[in-house]
Amino acid sequence: MREAEIRSALGHAFPGIKEGQTKGKPLYVGKVRDVVDLGDRLLIAASDRISAFDRVLSTIPFKGEVLNRIARFWFEATADIIPNHIISDAELGLPLSAKTGRAVLARKAQMLPVEVVVRGYLTGSAWRDYQAGRDVSGIKLPSGMKMNQRFPHALITPSTKESEGHDIPISCAEVVSRGLVEANLWKDVEKATLALFARGQEIAAKNGLILVDTKYEFGLVDGKLIICDEIHTPDSSRYWYADSYQNLFDSGEKQRELDKEYFRRWLMERGFMGDGPAPEITEDIRVEVAERYITAFETVTGQKFSPIGLDAEAERAFLLNLL
After folding, report:
1. Helix, coil or strand: residue 222
2. What does the alpha-carbon distance between residue 136 and residue 123 come to, in Å, rounded to a whole number?
3. pTM of this prediction?
4. Cα 231–236–237 angle (5° rounding)?
5. In this structure, are residues 48 and 307 in contact, taking their beta carbons and an 8 Å threshold?
6. Contact between 214 and 62 (Cβ < 8 Å)
7. What is the C-alpha separation between 256 and 291, in angstroms, rounded?
8. Bridge partner list, 51
9. d(CA 140, CA 97)
10. Helix (H, G, I), strand (E, B) or coil at 319
11. Per-residue model confidence as pLDDT tens digits over 151-169
12. DSSP structural state of residue 240
């Protein structure tokens, strides 16, 4: 997709479903996703909003469709590991995925009260904690590690889900000791987490990428563990290009990224890490971030990105017609 096409879409980004438009059905507005409660199922729409450091800061054209379609790609690629919350077109009896790229109908799950973060490399917030001499979710790392160094095996580093402010890292042991998740169920979560991450790294490697870290959200449907929300998207995951990893690591340089870390770093370079006023999100940065999301879609899936979604108001009208 050319830069000119993205620029022409800047004024038509999808901000989400508005309050009062859901025909009386409950609406939950997250940082990126809007969820309408339909009883035993949910309508989940991925908006074009972009958040960083737990703050919604702007909109990025096509972002919601990119996230939703990448998530669907990964849900299909991991369905043999663990069931997911998506209700398929066949089950619905209508070709929803051919009409909207940004929305799904999903089973309502009892969500576990933790985000399950898994890391393959020492980077991001884990590196910042390590530099400050802190444990990483209760894990004491050996001295002498370098930025972006690969761990001998993937680490599970959960965090709480806070309704306001920043989520709080906790250890796996604390998840159980605090009674957030029962011990046997947490073992199942850990097993599924490592299997999903291994599958993600395997498929990413075939496309010349490294899946560096990611987060998963799990829930229960009829007492059965399922994966929910999103999986291996640029919002929930960090990707690096594999061909340049070793040279950049050896020289201590930043890795080539295919994820939202570019936007976070742009903010940090301007002194913003979640507190105080955010810098102006210019049109140029919105276009650059959109290009990176589209590149992520095409690199991860191997498919050319052609938008399914309509313009913002037409898309909203279509989704509300499903209620």
Report:
1. coil
2. 11
3. 0.89
4. 90
5. no
6. no
7. 15
8. 56
9. 45
10. helix
11. 999 999 999 987 666 678 9
12. E
